[in-house]
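Format notes (please read before filing issues)

Several people have asked whether sequences and structure tokens are stored in separate files. They are not. Every record keeps both together, in the order shown below: the sequence lines, then the token lines. Line labels are part of the format and must not be stripped during preprocessing.
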Amino acid sequence: MGDVLAFAEQRDGVVRGVTHEVVSAGARLAAELGGELHAIAIGGAGLSGAVGGLGAFGASRVKVASDPALASYSPDGYAGVVAEAVKQGGYTAVLFAATSVGKDLAPRVAALLDVPMASDATELAAQDGAVVVRRPVYSGKAFARVRLDASPAVVSLRPNAFPAEERAAAGATEDVAVAVDPASWASKVVGFEAAGAGALDVSEASIVVSGGRGMKDPEQWSVLEELRDALGADQAALGASRAVVDAGWRPHGEQVGQTGKTVSPKLYFAVGISGAIQHLAGMRTSGTIVAVNKDPDAPIFGVADYGIVGDLFDVVPKLAEEIRTLRAGD
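Then the structure lines:
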């Protein structure tokens, strides 16, 4: 039996959408390994009700580790709980979402288990009882196929790379006893800077509208906001290049790139972005890339599926208008 454990990421008692992707991918992998997919959720009181729906995405069992000290994310606290659950369950693989939390937590768990890990996987499968992943390398210029012979295999999955498919399973929840000692933690999270109310996280959005220096100044961002709203604010998010964030035009939470967030939406708009390698590393695995730039030689056109050479302040408003018209016809 090759059981798989998925980390169920939640925030303020609400399971994040990317968790459904990880659970779905884990359920498929567990089936290939001849085992079950279990999930583990960590947080404060009242968490059981929030994770009960994970059975619909393939979780046969959902372990809930609750403690007041774990109400907010703690690197040391969460890593210890997950590592102990893995040891107790004898899992073949442990999966995380490659979000800001997952990128911090997964390597800590791998270190505690003394095993290597594969990060940012875009494909996941079982081969002769081992876990095999496909992941981007060299800033997304190539892909490596990696076989993890160590057990358990620790893997983080790139958001939006795996479909969240309903796969009915028992989803029974069970409380897990945890012994936490906050005094022993080397670091503690003292607070979070949240995005605007209702704003979609750029790493989880299925559509991303990003802007760069070509926007000229932060006051012009309303042009991109109109395009985002035309596409649907419930599925589209705003992104930004590093130059824009460094200039203080946009918050760091919107930065797409090697030193920002890695995104893989179904549709990516690069508006006024030249296409520096640092930015391409964070978005080149997107499903469809649309670039708008007045420079026909901009590197962004080298990775774009569709390119529009022109003044973005003429092109983008017209594009938003056409999208609104098309959606109104639906």
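For reference, the curators noted about this record: The domain at 4-184 is CATH 3.40.50.620 (Rossmann fold). The chain has a mean pLDDT of 92.
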